Amino acid sequence: MDAKKLMDYKVDEAMDLFVLLKNADARVAKNGKRFLSITFEDESGEISGMYWDASDADVASFVAGKVVKLTGKRELYQGKAQIKIQSIRLATDNEPNDPSYFVPHAPEKRKDIKEEIEAFLFDITEPTWNRIVRNLLQRHAESFYTYPAAKTNHHAYAGGLSFHTLSILRLAKSVVGEYPGINAPLLYAGAILHDIGKTTELSGPVSTQYTTTGNLIGHISLIDGEIVSACDELKLDSQGDAVVLLRHMVLSHHGLFEYGSPVEPHMLEAEILHRLDELDASIMMIQGTLKNTPNGQFSERIFGLDNRKFYKE
Amino acid sequence: MDAKKLMDYKVDEAMDLFVLLKNADARVAKNGKRFLSITFEDESGEISGMYWDASDADVASFVAGKVVKLTGKRELYQGKAQIKIQSIRLATDNEPNDPSYFVPHAPEKRKDIKEEIEAFLFDITEPTWNRIVRNLLQRHAESFYTYPAAKTNHHAYAGGLSFHTLSILRLAKSVVGEYPGINAPLLYAGAILHDIGKTTELSGPVSTQYTTTGNLIGHISLIDGEIVSACDELKLDSQGDAVVLLRHMVLSHHGLFEYGSPVEPHMLEAEILHRLDELDASIMMIQGTLKNTPNGQFSERIFGLDNRKFYKE
Amino acid sequence: MDAKKLMDYKVDEAMDLFVLLKNADARVAKNGKRFLSITFEDESGEISGMYWDASDADVASFVAGKVVKLTGKRELYQGKAQIKIQSIRLATDNEPNDPSYFVPHAPEKRKDIKEEIEAFLFDITEPTWNRIVRNLLQRHAESFYTYPAAKTNHHAYAGGLSFHTLSILRLAKSVVGEYPGINAPLLYAGAILHDIGKTTELSGPVSTQYTTTGNLIGHISLIDGEIVSACDELKLDSQGDAVVLLRHMVLSHHGLFEYGSPVEPHMLEAEILHRLDELDASIMMIQGTLKNTPNGQFSERIFGLDNRKFYKE
Amino acid sequence: MDAKKLMDYKVDEAMDLFVLLKNADARVAKNGKRFLSITFEDESGEISGMYWDASDADVASFVAGKVVKLTGKRELYQGKAQIKIQSIRLATDNEPNDPSYFVPHAPEKRKDIKEEIEAFLFDITEPTWNRIVRNLLQRHAESFYTYPAAKTNHHAYAGGLSFHTLSILRLAKSVVGEYPGINAPLLYAGAILHDIGKTTELSGPVSTQYTTTGNLIGHISLIDGEIVSACDELKLDSQGDAVVLLRHMVLSHHGLFEYGSPVEPHMLEAEILHRLDELDASIMMIQGTLKNTPNGQFSERIFGLDNRKFYKE
Amino acid sequence: MDAKKLMDYKVDEAMDLFVLLKNADARVAKNGKRFLSITFEDESGEISGMYWDASDADVASFVAGKVVKLTGKRELYQGKAQIKIQSIRLATDNEPNDPSYFVPHAPEKRKDIKEEIEAFLFDITEPTWNRIVRNLLQRHAESFYTYPAAKTNHHAYAGGLSFHTLSILRLAKSVVGEYPGINAPLLYAGAILHDIGKTTELSGPVSTQYTTTGNLIGHISLIDGEIVSACDELKLDSQGDAVVLLRHMVLSHHGLFEYGSPVEPHMLEAEILHRLDELDASIMMIQGTLKNTPNGQFSERIFGLDNRKFYKE
Amino acid sequence: MDAKKLMDYKVDEAMDLFVLLKNADARVAKNGKRFLSITFEDESGEISGMYWDASDADVASFVAGKVVKLTGKRELYQGKAQIKIQSIRLATDNEPNDPSYFVPHAPEKRKDIKEEIEAFLFDITEPTWNRIVRNLLQRHAESFYTYPAAKTNHHAYAGGLSFHTLSILRLAKSVVGEYPGINAPLLYAGAILHDIGKTTELSGPVSTQYTTTGNLIGHISLIDGEIVSACDELKLDSQGDAVVLLRHMVLSHHGLFEYGSPVEPHMLEAEILHRLDELDASIMMIQGTLKNTPNGQFSERIFGLDNRKFYKE
Hints:
Six copies of one chain form a homohexamer.
Chain A: E1 14-28, E2 34-42, E3 45-51, H1 56-61, E4 67-77, E5 80-90, H2 110-119, H3 127-139, H4 143-146, H5 160-178, H6 184-193, H7 198-201, H8 212-234, H9 241-251, H10 268-290, E6 297-298, E7 311-312
Parallel strand pairs in A: 3-5
Antiparallel strand pairs in A: 1-2, 1-4, 2-3, 4-5, 6-7
């Protein structure tokens, strides 16, 4: 076994490594025997393969979220990479078996992201907003820095939620510097909180799914409800003037009713937050897609950007 | 002075009665003198008139929401009814001066509406929903039965909010009786709460306006936040299973993102609540408009119904 | 052979029963031999299976709409139920071979539906409407009570057309009882006629398809044309006042141009009919889909409801 | 009195002529006296004026649709032409008093239009279509050649309906000549019938309004119903093959559901009819608007063409 | 070998002919061997087939755009025609090997199309437009008469671009003849130039693809840029009055922003060009689709016509 | 006369100053005499007033774009500020009479804006783009720094075009600094050129109107055409690789077809330019509107932002 990552292997090269089972669906073949259709994943990307003649025990063991030791070979099938599996077994306690180690991560370190975000707290000079933001960062101290920002699309990797938040804060700082008259504390407080509801809407960084609560309430109303709850705990009036402004920031950040905001932006800072959110997401989606696009060609179409394809110089 | 209502007077008939100032705007005439453009209102309807040569004291006294003693004459101007004002003065404490007495009211008695709505509480057999509904009815014990359901459009009269709620409950009961398998407690709980946020979104039954909080948060997120707050008070988990279903009912009741719901209906009961809400509102808007339409003609266009006009047989 | 229905058999259980061929498509396998891809159906539901090595005679005999004696076994293939066919043969005249017996039916008895609908005729007190409705019910005496209301979606079963009509009439009666001032005879007459054009638009209860006439004219204009034709027969003026109102009811019942109505509702009763039509259809679609959804999960997406999925408690 | 038309008079020139009252609204002036706000019209165009101090008899006599003898003067008021009225009186039986003489007319003679349209009947070689078209042209022998094609917009003049029909037939003939394989009889039959329902939808060539029947049924369903009625009279099956194709032509001629067609075009000839209908209407709207536009400038915006304005070279 | 075309062979008939490789994709079969999935094409249409066990040399030789000698047999697979390939080899220099010979062609001769288009130059009597049109026809003397008008959809065959242009010119001539007051030179000049940018947007008549330049600029801006460039060459002001009108014609010919026009039509002639462009394209799309539709049935849905299907009598 | 600006005067205060005539419309009063309805403007804002009994000479002299000496008084009329004019006369050559001096200006100095924009040229390291940008800045050396960016809405003041351009460049620099992998030279070149076509689309900084060329071609195609023209002058291929990318930047900068871009962004840099353009415009529109909004209230609705109103804290 070697230190190679999943995507480092070439066609016909023998593979021997630890990888995560991102998906593992049990099916029945035409001959009546069961097999597993598996997607393997590590930080470098993902590839699929078939595990034939799966026993009941195999079906029970090899489920999404488990780390396995894989031997096999990389092959081409109908123009796509796939793995011909020789053997798989679960990683033991003495081996690397922490799933979170195998999912892609934000491009900066969790500790650095956390420090830089928390530095913005000093610029949130309005006490009500400052207390609410601190309270909610506390509640989600762990998940905020480990969750992705989405199931697919942009920032769909461990730590993506906080990295997306930080990217917006950095843009916000530039805007505050360029245009006089912006309420910076409000903009920063709204930016930090705007997507925290995703820690409830999504299931976590590994094999990310929408939760039932996420589907029925949505991250926008979830964070709005949490602000109310924080106010109750901090003995603040959840319909008081300052709180209403902050709630407006998070409620309106999708910009349009059609995108799920129950109110559209009616403050300068809300408009800016909405636009910076979209700007950062767009850049991430395009750069993520162009990574897999050869020079001089167009990428696949990006669903989140009106199904447009992008040209790579 | 007599017991006639505002709309009972005929053209050229002398008027002498107490009425409410619905609006009173101070303007400057071409000759440089100030005058007040006033809209008078009582239960029977509303008519406008000009109060010429208004003194500073007049401008300060005669403001929207005050009851006045009016003498004058009903006239026709460019085909429209108007009042030629002889005199107005504020009603004294010994005279009828309660503004709420002069605004239009729901067609049934507040006491009856209240009793019939509260009877539904016994059908909300799920304890979590029952406690939350009781808690919020308590909080808004006064305003829920006095507020209108809208600034204009349907149910725009004192008590309109609770009467609209009751009308939906009655329809809901018919639907529950006709179709097996509906979760009646959830449907009734959602119906009672769905518009209570309007007690914060609107300013009240007299001279109804949208509040700043209403504009920045909206009645859907307001009631969702109040459910969270009620949970905090009742020591319930605001993201627990039963509460999530109830929150979904109120969050989705506008049916479409475009109409301000942050989630669309994803439960049978949520779909039914949304459709009954629209059905009741449509009937009210059409009947309200047809009241002023001659037989054999089409009404004015109704903005809330795609600008359609309706034929009166 | 036993009295079990199609869906009563378990995996690996031997089957021996009469069923309907809902579809039977002849195809050529990779080895060059023909086979039939069959969907079997009875009241309990439907399952598919392959009939290998089909002779010319097989292809000619086993066509959609025939009842067959089937022996075989229920199996699982790629997570879906399917039938491994041992033998099929056409049902003889001495055996159950009436296809209409094998298609799903409305949840109430045809006789009861008919009686309850006809009882409403006594409430259609306007003579012109009454005569037209009776004339058209007469014309479609058979098909109105046997046709489905749709090819797929809601009420897509034998008798669905009349059951859908009755469900709307029941709702309409509740609305008439709750709101004063509704023209009940017009509402009931419109409700009974609104979808009768489907007896021409659709091919019938077995293997339902759109007819060419249905595709080129549509059930809305078909019923409008039939009202004209009934007027010609009854010596009524098809552009007379009462007839115009009834025609408006059926022409506008889809509510929006986008849904195929050549006029939008311009009468209170037309608006109500449209909304009750949608309400009943929505409940049927959701309940039909939830029947196959496990508790605590979301259903498949429903095309007719903006592709939304619904949560089953 | 002279032979000048309404628009021939210059500013400050004394006027003395017979004209039509297109509109005449009674109003009350600030001084309490009634006056009539009148729009005068003849073939050359229309101008407005005020008739002060109108007696009860005046209000009763001077109504829309009457021809009057007018003396007065053309003036400019706020940049617009208006008439200062000296006197008006009704035209007597010995004077020109036929209103239809004073409305704008189609640019070709009624007799020529009729002959050219009827010549197309010989190209409708399918007997069913031929009989239906002849039957309906017979029914509307008078109105088809005198009605406008619209209340405003394109062809809003006496004879506009038949002239619009003829223009489409001419275009259709070119298309049939250029593209092989078009069913010319079907295209011509559909073209002749497509707008005949407007003889019921509109009130007539003078002071054109939508009728109640027009508003509740619409000209598309009206003509479809008349085809059914013609079939009943001619003992043809109104759901027979040939009739279904013809009905499809008229039902689909607005092209899109949004424009009021209950079915969209599903035949080559239906698609062509729809497009030629729009092409002719567009040219008429633009040319009508450009007539009043100075060279080198943009016209007013045209509502029927997405509110676009057009440049006049 | 015989003179039969690809589509002339019946099922099970042996084939021996020269055909074009329209597509040839190399894939790997389940057994690990490579095969080519090929689409053959000649003027009569196209059929697919599999070429098993392809060597490296085969994959390198048999690429899209090559003419091959094919022997094999026509078969049916899953209801669709396919070719069982016995052998293929590249056509030699002594054999028919010009790919352009095998692609479908316009239904009229290139020489005739060219002559008829160039005859219109004499009707472009405005000298600026005449010089620009001649200059650009010169630049694209070859490609204009060989390119298709689209990758798929209408006129997707060699010469389709010029044939589509000619069809519009013919319609334009009819319109000019029927309606007085149209600027014929402007309409004809715009019609000739409107789609010439496709000679850069598309790759050519064989295996037509969008070019990178086509994707990034689009044929509308390409031809607008070429008009500027022609002006520079001819020493004309590219923002002069006459040029601005011509540029408006080509820029607005898609009619709506949504269809890629940067300005909507603001001249009568631009509106006409847009509508004739759509009319010709619609007829071509429908007739092309109906060619493969049996009588009495509906065609496949046509994407370019709102996904409608068309009935073939 | 004093140094006060137009908006510095209080109600009833006598005025004596030089101002610009922004608009001056001649009308006829009810008494038949002509008057001028004038809008006065200087850097501080604008107010209207009536100039009664205007002679022919007055109408000829006092036209939009002239500077006048005004004496009068500020008054209130129907709640709005207006000027009671005592006298106006044209400013002489010895007095301040340069209109451009009286229109609002960008908030930074023209010289500074120019220097900062030109500094970006050094970062456009790709020689083709650099040469084209320099060539076009040269062509519009004067107008680029004096024109507004719009007729109304954002940056509708002298120098607004270049200030808007600079604001985008500043934002672009921040984005380039935050996200690795952006082609900065392309982004800067696109940003500088994107709106230069407005120097032809608009009439200039005083009494700004759309030109005929602007209406028929639009600033997007105008600048695209100018790039082609610059290439012709610089002997560059206007369809060469580098030029195509630059043309794509300016063609796609409105982001959506609906907003007038003939292609949507298909490059990362094009997407960023589009979003920064909208971000800067939004901030300018909101801040401009909030300037006239009292604290604690909502602004007027902003047309360019979906008719939303904005709250001022």
